[in-house]
Amino acid sequence: MNSSNQNTGRREFLQQSVVGAAAAGLAITSTSHVTAQTVPDAAEPEVTNEVDVLVVGGGTAGHVAAIQAGRAGAKTMVMERASCLGGMTTRGGVCFPGLFDAWGKQVIAGIGWELVKECVELDGGTLPNFAKVPQHHWQNQVHINQFLYYILAEEKCQEAGVTICYHEFPQAIKATSTGWEVDCVGFGTRRRVLCRQIVDCTGGAEVAGMLGYPRLQGEERQPGSIQFLLDEANNPGRGTKRGGAGLLHAIYVHGADSTNSRTVTEASLTGRKAVLDQVRKSGQRLMHLQPEPGFRESYRIEGETLITVNDYTSGRVFDDAISYAFYPVDLHTKTGVRPKPLKPGKVPTIPLSALIPKGSRNIIVAGRCVSSDRLANSGLRVQASCMGMGQAAGVAATLAAKSGTTPLEVPLPEIHALLREHGQIVPGKA
Question: Which terminal residue of the chain, N or C, has fewer Cβ atoms less than 10 Å from its own Cβ?
Fold first, then answer.
């Protein structure tokens, strides 16, 4: 059968299926049409790009860093090995990206909050009243529609002129006189990126590790969580009284490790098998399953500054603070988790120097790989804080690219001024 006859056969089959289903009383959604733009030189396997800022990892910190760099005038590319932006907020299903407030006022705003707020409003949801100090921290979580969130993030990237590269990741990196030469691989694609600055938002500081900069990792990792729902439809963006987790259930995956593709595969297989066991035992229908576990912990960089748990819980305002953080010390173990709330009035800050791998130039990190001890990291790793770090890293990388210097040498007042221009709340000493 030729291709024309095959296409005709497919159309007839679909039409007959629709008629049959309609007769049976089933609801059929209509099919609409869109056309993807032609990708230049799509048939060519080798591509070369020159950009000012390359953001590796499009997760919670990465997409914010990319949007910020693009809006600030940097030619920007974000590279994500998966198929969507948002990381743990979207693929991991942790679709309650708090906390943005502390002790009756908002402390994290900027691009991340812009996205969250727009997502909630477009989805017909409600926002918490930050002027009210809740009895429990999770009561001020903002619940979002994870599916809507990542397509909004894509839209804002594209509006900012950011090039998005899905299904790709760096394989080799070497320094040049003006920055970096990064060789990347995706299926059917070999891409060389020439950039001035790299923002490593991989979660485990994988780019920093490839370059040989020191990283920290404990002998034990916090368990990951694979999220699912039995017997009722998933209702994204709508929280319930079940704490901050919305309608989804979760299974702890002990030993979950996001170090590399092999450890992620093992965690995913383990979590999914546990879900399948629950389906069989319960006799209920599986209505929702996240595509991968939510990982809480992997590598952290050894930065120019290391944030200690005492720095975190005392609300230390670092001299080079670029954003706030707010969440209990939240270390998950085999016996569960008992969050240790911060004392009234304490709001931690994050210094620029904790985002700089020790001894490095032309690279900055953002997200849960921030230089910190394990207990401090258990509070710093949540999404709102990572969004704040991502925006600061995007600013620092952009200014460094424009001035031909490295992020740590950009004057701090310039970083603060650009952050404020783009809506971020910048810490200041009393």
Answer: C
Note the pLDDT of residue 263. 85
Residue 270 lies in domain:
224-289
Residue 91's CATH number: 3.50.50.60
- Residues 64 and 105 grouped into a single domain: yes
pLDDT (0 to 100) of residue 256: 81
Rounded mean pLDDT of the chain? 89
Calpha distance 392→371 (Å, rounded): 15
Q: What is the pTM of this model?
A: 0.88
Residue where the block lists tokens 């005492």: 310
Q: Which of these, 322, 417, 424, lies nearest to 107 by C-alpha position?
A: 424
Number of structural domains (the chain) is 2
**Measured between alpha carbons, how far is 423 from 367 in angstroms, rounded to an integer?**
19
- Rounded average pLDDT over 270-283: 92
Tokens 């990892």 — which residue?
57
Judge whether 36 lies within some domain: no
Helix (H, G, I), strand (E, B) or coil at 118: helix
